[in-house]
Amino acid sequence: MTKDQILARDQRNIVRNKNLAENIVIIDGFPGCGKTLFGPIVSALDRVEILNYAFEIEFICRLYKLNKVTNDAATSMVKMLIDHKLYQTMMGRETNFRYSDLSSVFNDPHPLRYFKRIFQEGDMV
After folding, report:
1. Which among 47, 52, 78, 93 counts the fewest CB atoms within 10 Å?
2. What's 106's DSSP letter?
3. Distances in whole angstroms, Cα of residue 58 to Cα of each of 65, 68, 81, 87
4. Could you give the count of Cα atoms lying within 13 Å of 57 in the half-sphere of its Cβ?
5. Is the Cβ–Cβ distance between 125 and 91 less than 8 Å?
6. Is 40 exposed, middle or buried (0-12, 13-18, 19+ CB in 10 A)?
């Protein structure tokens, strides 16, 4: 590969125009600031899904802060990850049924909807 080809390749932007998740809520903060208390309150709102820990988003943000990925790449990766997590949740996959966990369906105000999802047929959300 020539130097010009490498430079041209580096000039391309990564774009994700269509998103499954339109409005997302991210609860973030320092340890001990009340995120655990705030999560169930937010989950009780209409059209809000169960608490989901997305450590991958933190990893992408760290790589961006260290200048290891570009802004467009980090933004697109976060959007793809959020869409994937939402799709998996809506399909009843990767759902936590461990009773005592903070992210358990039993800590959600509407746990029955998650039980119903695991018995749905098809893959349409």
Report:
1. 47
2. G
3. 10, 14, 11, 20
4. 15
5. yes
6. middle
pTM for the full predicted model: 0.75
pLDDT at 8: 57
Q: State residue 3's pLDDT score.
A: 61
pLDDT averages per 10-residue partition of the chain, 125 residues: 60 73 82 82 84 89 94 92 90 90 86 88 72
Cβ count near 117 (within 10 Å): 16
Q: 77-80: long-range contacts at Cβ-Cβ below 8 A with a sequence spacing of 24 or more? A: 79/16, 79/19, 79/21, 80/16
